Amino acid sequence: MMEKSIMDYTKPSEISLMICKNICRLTTVSFLLAVILVLSLLSWRPAAAISGKKYDTISQNCTTIKQSLRQLQKTDSRTRSYLGTTYETIATKFIIPLNLRLVKNGRPDTDLTEIQSDFTYSHGQFKEKYTEYMKELETLIGMECQRYPDAFYGQLEKVRESRAKLQKTVNSLTKLSAAQTEAVATLRRSL
User: Fold this and answer.
1) How is 118-151 classified by DSSP, letter by letter?
2) How far apart are CA 120 and CA 81, in angstroms?
3) Can you state the angle between helices 110-142 and 96-104, rounded to 10 degrees?
4) What is the structure's pLDDT at 26?
């Protein structure tokens, strides 16, 4: 027996409301990630050898820095889990079933199909970029910052770069979710 989707039980207006609620949650999480990213970028410096003051600061505060990084890792893991679940839900419960239903009813919408394609691609990029970011963060946490502050700082810059790429993907998914909501509203007005 074929499993019924949410599209079989809800009206288009209820689906739009559910999409809007999920987008609001997604926007909040994206905003938090953006704030963290901005704060980390404010302290960004070029990859050259670090100054004596920074060298001393890193080596003297190594334990505290690592504790902060571990806390960031935990927070990011929870955020990734939430975002991953949200993106998966948006794709499998809203975007794909709606497009299938439109095709089934002989009313395919090119905008919605394009959004689905872009969303699926960006969702894959999100998973990939998050994995890259976590690997870089793991490497950073495992480094001996007390003995090798220069190498530690160089790895920190790699982590920041990976995080910035991840943030771009999150922003892309947020924009696509908003575009989906607008396209559904346009479709509803045309019916």
Assistant:
1) HHHHHHHHHHHHHHHHHHHHHHHHHS-TTT-HHH
2) 17
3) 160
4) 55
pLDDT digits (tens, 9 = 90+) for 57-71: 888 999 999 999 999
As a whole number of angstroms, the distance between CA 159 and CA 140 comes to 8
pTM above 0.85, yes or no: no
Beta-carbon contacts of residue 148 (< 8 Å; ≥ 6 apart)? none
Q: How far apart are the first and last CA of the chain?
A: 31
Q: Can you name the CATH fold of 14-41+53-190? A: Four Helix Bundle (Hemerythrin (Met), subunit A) (1.20.120)
CB 126 within 8 Å of CB 84 = yes
Per-domain boundaries in the chain: 14-41+53-190
90-116 burial: b if 16+ Cβ within 10 Å, else e? bbebbbbbbbeeeeeeeeebeebeebb
**Six-digit token string for 55:** 């060298």
- Positive or negative: CA dihedral 27, 29, 32, 38: negative
d(CA 152, CA 161): 14
- DSSP of 14-39, one letter per residue? HHHHHHHHHHHHHHHHHHHHHHHHHH
